[in-house]
Amino acid sequence: MAFIKAETDEAVRRFLNGEEESFDLIVRLWERKVYSLAWRMLGNKEDAQDVVQETFLSVFKSLRRLRDPASFPSWLYRIALNHCRARQKSRAFEFARKRPASVPQANDEAAGLSETAFVPSGAAALENADIIRKALAGLGEDHRTAVILKEYLGLSLEELAQVMECPLSTAKSRLYQGLREIHRNLERLGIKSAAP
After folding, report:
1. pLDDT tens digits along 16-69
2. Among residues 46, 67, 51, 55, which one has the least CA distance to residue 26?
3. CA pair distance 117, 130, nearest whole angstrom
4. I need a surface site. Which of 7, 14, 36, 40 has the fewest CB within 10 A?
5. Longest Cα separation, the chain
6. Contact of 83 with 58, CB cutoff 8 Å
7. What radius of gyration do the chain's Cα atoms show?
């Protein structure tokens, strides 16, 4: 991660000094991480790819306003999360608009739960992936976001608080509550897991 940070800091500085071609390096360094976040938040490959494009377009347009190149990762993840949220709202609106009034409300199990994935330590077995995705999808947005940022993207608690724009204590609370909810959801789905 130190390598990516050093490379990113240098590429951002070069971009801010007028070398727009350094943006290609920024994209290469961060594209997979942004895709990983978007896929886990949205559970859809096409939506995740669209969010990656929208995120980097936004970054290109507003990078000159970034005051501290060292804050780039947190800033980038906030932009990506905002695009994920906008896409979720758009999808919900589109679904509500297309759904016939006579169709009864589906329960969570049948409602096409998000294919986001959280694999706690030791639970990486492929056959459990769908159950784990359902357990994560059952979380509220703040808890799911905290778990994805920490467990999948490896952010520290301090970085988590920066991205989620909340105090450190709130970030910790969201993460730990999210982990507890995942374990409860796993147990409801028939998977025994160690409590966090």
Report:
1. 999 999 999 999 999 999 999 999 898 889 999 999 999 999 999 999 998 888
2. 55
3. 8
4. 7
5. 59
6. yes
7. 18
